[in-house]
Write a structure and sequence with these properties.
The protein has about 190 residues and is of the alpha/beta class. It is built from five helices and five strands; from the N terminus they run ααβββαβαβα. Strands 3-2-4-1-5 form a five-stranded mixed beta sheet, sandwiched between helices. A hairpin with a 5-residue loop joins β2 and β3. The protein is globular.
Length: about 190
Amino acid sequence: NYLYELLTTTPNDPQFTGNNQDGLTANPTYGINVPTAWQYTVGNPNIKIGVFDSGINYNHEDLGGGNFSTSKVAGGKDYRNSGVQISTVSNPDDDGHGSACAGIIGALSNNGKGVSGITGGDMSTSNMGSPLYAMKIFDASGFATLTDIGNALIEGVTYNPITGYGYRQNVTSHSWGGPVSAVTLANGVN
């Protein structure tokens, strides 16, 4: 007498079903075969993901849309503006790059909109997947300082239960670089 479970089906998001996300499928050249991984998990709400980038537009419809409280963005700060909470920033992503990266990671799946993220949950079961944290380190011109990067890294991955400081992120995403290797930055990341 075996136990069976429902398997995740192909998401109903139009950009996924239209093969516009073939990098997430089993493309033999460059695909990562996410549909097979979705048979095991569609995103764990206990796995916090920090997106260190230009911010995340929490108003985007494929990230929960409308406002901060209904979005997948669970927190974060704008380090380019004195570390204010991302929920209070009028333009949470000056460039759009961070939102695009956040979409690949965690756009809501099975919401009938846009794309499907790797940890996008399954909206047919009200599972929002893994929460995202907008660690906004780049300004509108596309530049970040070593100080802002360092402050964001420290606060992103640490947590002090006494003071409540830090986010204790399990995964961090960094889709940026510079012309030279900075030993200080490499040491900080390590």
